[in-house]
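It is worth pausing here to work through a concrete case rather than discussing structure prediction in the abstract. The textbook approach is simple: state the sequence, then state the predicted structure, then interpret. We follow exactly that order.
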Amino acid sequence: MNRNAAIPVLSLLLLSACMVAPNRRGGLEIVPILPAIVEVDSDSYYAHGGYHYFYTDDRWYYSDSRNGRRMELPRSHWPKETRRHEWNRR
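Step two, the predicted structure:
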């Protein structure tokens, strides 16, 4: 394979683990896929890869800040399993 063909192929492999989505400023941003197993805290919040994810009503949403505008995460980027973190309270 020549060098000119290798660059697009490698780019596709690297971006297959991410989602490209529009941001508020009119540009594009890359949102990483969640890990296979995610454990959310008491307020259904999870931070990963510089993004903030929210799990509510059996759906995943993401934002670039904890209190920012939430956008729905495509099902292809959802984790295989979602667990609730149980705090040991005594």
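Step three, interpretation. The two ends are 62 Å apart (CA to CA). The chain has one domain: 3-84.
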